[in-house]
């Protein structure tokens, strides 16, 4: 879906509909918006530009009269020509065909819409998995950067596994979690998502089956599917007992390649796997020779009590690849994470990483190392926990006030999320669209489980407290309107 990043000039003598038509025409003529591409809906474009829908209708009508666009049944409004195709016999390249032929699958339509809507001015983001800009440690970051100025002589490429100083600090940090990992067994990556991408292309065969919890964050991205893998979800409940019982049978049935799990403050449910269940899980996986990817990006964000040690802390056979990140605790834009595993595996993944990006940002690696080495990281995380506790309590109060009769939920002990279950059967697509019209951005449950039509992920980490309260209040009204 295209966006314009432009506003009409209301003081111009040229009518607004004509300004819109001329701008779109220019993008079509230059090939920036290629033939075969779908234009925004009239409603969506009107909302983006802050104009009446009738104005956009008039602009589209002019473009249609010129033969540049056409309404397609079931496809919306599509670019059918540009000035060159109207004048020349030989058509230009069909870039849209190339786009669809690429190996990497596109995001789900809902995910693409969420990614775009996050930047609409004034929108209330009730599902965003990111710390609020209010919690960005500006003074601490400035202090870290000032100290680094005197330390950095150059910012060249780092060695394949990443800056040694950072890997040493990650090794020391992981000891506090019960994980013994030498710097040689650590690979620095650009966030945990890159860790999954490297594993998918560097270790697995096409057609492999990935076992995971259901619902799961992994369903909302196509990193494994784009590498030719299949996902098989095992439903999780609070006690994980059925999940553990089914794991062995499914592994044999599906000949699974590995298990992906988020045992601490699971995304999206916020659940925590007990220490007993972690030991059971690892025992089953070791017996079945089933490797594990443990995603621990939320592990430091406990609110009530710290979670049990990571699976990796119990791992004595090298069965677990452990991933962590500073994206959820310091800044999403820092883009620094790590993979911990057997040295031959880390060597292989480091080689793949060098082939794809020649190493994560050197500056970001120096910054991350200073955060961990100076002790600033632990100070910051303690403050983040306090703020998340306040925000969670506010969210729970508002939910009790406005949602008691229409939904139920689980109280999260940490992380960012409350897994809200709507009691009525409401179309998630309809609810998402209606909320977006009202300036509220949701993460519906069907992006974490395609068959889920009742849940949504509520984040208390991003929106300002006043926005969180207002957004939840307005969401409760929308739900009541739709179900009535």
Give a quick summary of the entry:
With 484 residues, this protein is an alpha/beta fold.
In terms of topology, how is this protein built?
Blueprint: H1 16-29, H2 42-49, H3 53-65, E1 69-72, E2 76-79, H4 83-87, H5 95-101, H6 109-117, E3 124-125, H7 138-149, H8 164-175, E4 186-189, H9 192-202, E5 209-214, E6 230-235, H10 241-254, E7 258-261, H11 275-287, E8 292-295, H12 311-314, E9 320-325, E10 337-340, H13 343-356, H14 362-374, H15 376-402, E11 407-409, E12 417-422, H16 428-437, E13 440-441, E14 443-444, E15 455-459, H17 465-483
Name the helicity range. Answer: 40-55%
Number of DSSP helical runs: 17
Mean pLDDT: 91
Number of domains: 3
* Overall body shape: globular
CATH superfamily of the largest domain: Type I PLP-dependent aspartate aminotransferase-like (Major domain)
- Beginning-to-end CA distance, first to last residue: 32 Å
CATH topology of the largest domain: Aspartate Aminotransferase, domain 2
Report the uncertain regions: 86-90
- Our estimate of the beta-strand percent is 5-15%
- Rg over C-alpha atoms, rounded to the nearest angstrom: 25 Å
